[in-house]
Here is the input.
Amino acid sequence: MNILVLGSGGREHTFAYKIAQSKLCNKLFVAPGNAGTAGIATNIDISVTDFMAIKDVVLRESIDMVVVGPEDPLVQGISDFFTKDDQLKNVIVIGPSKEGAQLEGSKEYAKEFLFRHNIPTAAYQSFTATTVEEGKQFLETLQAPYVLKADGLAAGKGVLILEDIQEAKAELENMLTNKKFGAASEKVVIEEFLDGIELSVFVLTDGKNYVTLPTAKDYKRIGEGDTGLNTGGMGAISPVPFADDTFMAKIENQVIKPTVDGLAKENIDYKGFIFIGLIKVGDDPKVIEYNVRMGDPETEVVLPRIKTDLVTLFKHVGDQSLDTIDIELDPRSATTVMTVSGGYPEAYDKGKEITGIDTITDSIVFQAGTKIDGDKVVTNGGRVIAITSLDEDFRIALQKSYQSVEKLNFDKMYYRKDLGFDL
Ligand code: AMP
Ligand code: GLY
Here is the structure.
């Protein structure tokens, strides 16, 4: 098969790495890709939301399968674009329809779905510019901290957690009236605060059947001890040590199964990943969000633990036969440490030479914000390279990742040295 991966991060390098190992893969393309994907696939310099340019590539290169990395093309309807086009309708797209992608594209849609299917989640109400005053009154009925969520996609920045009620009211006003997050905050979901420890579960579904993929935990804050600004993710560990069999059975019965059954019951065309953000409250899982794609950097620890051929799994997604395959996982732990450009997640420089990549032998190097510049690899984003290691003990895997990271170098390179501190 000829396969196209859409995206340019560490997640997409990881997809390309696994797909390139498959006997079923003939030619592999990544659009737009990075310096890492250039080493194992052909990069094509087009945008992930330029559907016409993607169509041209798919026809020109006889692509049989498209794996969609980020959420934007999904929320904009890339999957429907393929199914509605006579020339493209037989291409397998790994990623849900526009309707299914609303689970990530609209917080209110996700909450309504969760409540319709009795899936445990925080209590909530949603408000718009015309109901700001009602929103403030609703805040009065809650206890601190206050959770405000912009309804739409806000590049991971749309959730505010505030201790002070006056500040919460002011931010609500800011989001709704002053459009703090643009169109994404024309509607705001106010949610009950859930106190507990976070984890994520990943599911691959064909819309009827599913396989549960490894769990993972990411480290979102820039600073050690989970302090400072939110980032896309500074590292991840899989599996999550506290997600034992009893807890996983609850997640399966109370969350995963009703989610997939709910999609099927509502006739929502969904062939792809579901990334479920959970908080463990006491002994019980509660959903805080759905994403309709894999996470980054979670992919860098989840995919290396999947032993089953990834393209085979995707083919079963394509013909809705995931019930006929058992997934085999590597029981070892995987860890990834993300190196970032100094200044990230605020302003940072690009174009800095990266050295040491080829000297890393005990870990897998997944490139994110990198590009080729002449005979050099240079930085091209905030998150630059993720270093993944495997071991029976996650602490030793982490040590390996840290030893490998020390072999890398670029101007103002930064990474968190405390991953796993909370486990
Ligand atoms: P989300 O984009 O919905 O995942 O929210 C971003 C982050 O906010 C999550 O990773 C949690 O740390 C936190 N969060 C979201 N919803 C809640 C909630 N109801 N209670 C406590 N923390 C939350
Ligand atoms: N690491 C979080 C995400 O991909 O959304």
User: Anything to note?
Assistant: The pocket of adenosine monophosphate (ligand 1) is lined by residues 122, 147, 149, 159, 161, 191, 193-194, 198, 277, 288-289 (CB under 6 Å). The CA atoms of residues 334 and 390 lie 4 Å apart. The first strand starts at residue 3 and ends at 7.
